[in-house]
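sorry for the late reply, my laptop died twice this morning and i had to redo everyting from scratch. anyway the thing you sent over, i finally got around to it. pasting the sequence first so we're on the same page, its 192 residues, then the predicted structure underneath. double check i copied it right bc i was rushing
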Amino acid sequence: MIPTRMILAAAALVVAFPALAQQAPQRPAQPQRPTQPQQAQAQAQAQGGPSSIGRFDDWEAATLSERGQKVCYAFTRAAASAPAVQGRGEVVLVLTHRGRSRDEVAVRAGYTYPNNAEPAGTVEASSGNIALAFFAAGEAAFARDRAAAVNAFERGRSLRLAGPGPRGGTVTDVFSLRGFTAARRAIGEACK
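ok and here's the structure:
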């Protein structure tokens, strides 16, 4: 089975792209036909779709073209979520560089937040926990202070985001920050 990676642009736009399949050794006399995932990756890139920069511990970095503009982003999936929410989509934390806008921090919740929701983030760091404020719009939560979020992510081990669930109660998602700094550096280089 070929793994699929879900990608979130900071505007809470989710873009999926297949991972590159491992290739079997080629026989010299017969050229190898592209696999279905390779064809899909090539087609997506030709249409301005995602192109992987690389994997950095628990983070992945990629680029895509959005209305003719290069967008660079790094993302990680939730390592843990509680309680389980039936029918919930993928939960992703993403950092995006788009045009002159840098360090957009967003979380795709996998469900629509209630109106006026304000999820609360806590970055667990060796120097102590760091509180971060978020605001919600649809299925996404955005960091109110980008610079504070990025600074905390670079010093932290994990982000714990707690917000209102789709049917009441609180839903908590935990994201690893291992590899964040390297992934941020990679997208910074790709989108100079």
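The helical segments are 36-46, 146-155, 180-190.
thats about all i looked at so far, will dig more tmrw
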